[in-house]
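Sample log: Phage capsid family protein.
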Amino acid sequence: MKIEELRQQKAEKVEEVRKLNQENKIEEAEKTLEEVRALDKQIKISEELEAEEMRDLQNQKAKKEERGDVNKMEKVNETRAFVKAVLGNKMTDEERAVVKTTDNSAVLPSQYINRLTELKKGFGSLKQYCDIIPVTKNEGSMPIFDPEQNGMLKDIAEGDVIPDGKLVTTDMQFKCKKVGIKIPLSSELIDDAEIDIENAVNSSFAESTTLTENYSIVQAIDANATDVTATDYTALEDIMAKALPTVKAGLITLTNVEGYALLKNMKDKQGRNMNLITTGGDGKEYFNGKEIVTFDSSLVTLAEGKTIVFYSLNMKEAIKFFDRSNGTTVNRWNDYDTDTKKASILERLDIKAGITRSIKKIEL
């Protein structure tokens, strides 16, 4: 019996237990609950067998590639194989070998991931400015270099013993959370399901996950920012001028929509635009010689009476974005209330504050 069939059978039994319990048929409910537990064990065994089988197929593929016997493999359409895996359709050994899985869900093919990355940039993703750390598991720790704890090197005279070098690092704990959406699959046909998934990834999923990522990033920045009292935007210029040389190269300005509009529309006494924000040859916008990036005003709550916020910081140093490798997955499931087939599209990530010395905040 397939895993999907076992899961469906379990869901039906769970509903049966609820109904029996509501009817006060306790003994029958307990007996059916035992069947649910047995199905849980069977599902777990099936998942482990499937994972073992997938590892064997990947090893077979690697051996074929070593021998140069890849002609048959090249004929496999990775996207169609992926959609078949999502639908639970029968697959050939070659198709199973090209579909990557994580947490018993099919991983989005590279062509989807590349397109998703570009779309997120179009939705104003802040991820690209963070220090992106690929991880291969959902939780663990990662040593982070601490520049404030590592001093200067000492002069070494001729004949002196070179001292041992020891970088000071801090173990940062991470735990990747799941974020995503569910979509209806309008058809069991592979071509139609492929369109359903592609449309969802390119629209709803890209926009929703970008907003979720940006919210977590801005919240991490805001929670670790040093407030600077200011009466106008010139305080931001002063902050940037006084930034440490070690962080100045990567310095950027983050602002909400109102802050961007203030700088963009600032005029001198003669009513001429001051051109505080300029566009570089790379297409990016700059303020005071450093890139300025706008985020959705709803992502942060300001003090009463304040409408504008500016953050000056080195994002690479300040924000660590733990990105689960092969972490964007699609998994099909049944909605028993409406008797429809659906798919969940999930990605796994965690966002932490790193070295926060550069984060300065102004509210106006």
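Observation: The CA atoms of residues 86 and 130 lie 32 Å apart.
Observation: The radius of gyration is 27 Å.
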